[in-house]
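Comment thread on ticket #2218

A.B. wrote:
> Attaching the input chain for the structure job we discussed in standup.
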Amino acid sequence: MAHEKENTALPIITASNLSIGYGDQTVLHNISLEVYRGEILAVLGRSGCGKTTLFRALIGLIELRSGEVFIDGEKCVPILEGGPDGLMKKIGVLFQSGALFSSMTIAENIALPLVQYSNLPRNVIERLVALKLAEVGLGAYARSFPSELSGGMQKRAALARAMALDPKILFFDEPSAGLDPVTSAELDETIMAINAALGTTIIIITHELASVFRIANRIIMLDPQEKGIIAQGTPEELRRIVDDKRVRDFFASLN
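C.D. wrote:
> Ran it. Output below, let me know if you need it in another format.
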């Protein structure tokens, strides 16, 4: 189980009074949260509760109906409204699908953020790519294509790309989706090693309770009827909640 860190640090992400929706549908209404530097935060909830919507709002992929998000002291402006490149350098994202480009080698995929957001010489980029591949245990696969890698290896390659610019924050959308339990546990170990070695703040959107109890320092739980946060705390704190049937039933599924 992950070490429970005390929230003594200043928040690196502050979201205030967020309301988010699509068309006539409101998915999340008037929610606020903080993410602390160096923690691993898991966002949980049943299907349709708004986990991925919150994920996209925090990184500026969708427009807010109301509220605001600050990342490392800088207001997050949606990308479609001209969000600054400087903010994107602070964030690494691992999407559920991995989102690797199939026509590029693994090394070329990982080099993309470095080419786009830095002016580093090619030889320096190549060395950084090799370093990132080594960090996720894929040093021998630089010239391979995504189709030549297993699902777990593709996720680790996507993680290396998310880490390319040494971001302060990593976002993961269902990182264990489609992985067998052993591979999922190996990915969890990689995530914890990155957090421990680099102090990277990590936010994980997931429904995998076993993974949450392995790695999360803190949990925020969303509910589709409430359209917001119904519980937050350490994994053990939420597991002991007995006065809210929604939380109790969700955690009972682990047993």
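A.B. wrote:
> Thanks. Noting for the ticket: The beta strands are 11-22, 25-36, 40-44, 66-71, 74-75, 91-94, 169-173, 201-205, 218-223, 228-233.
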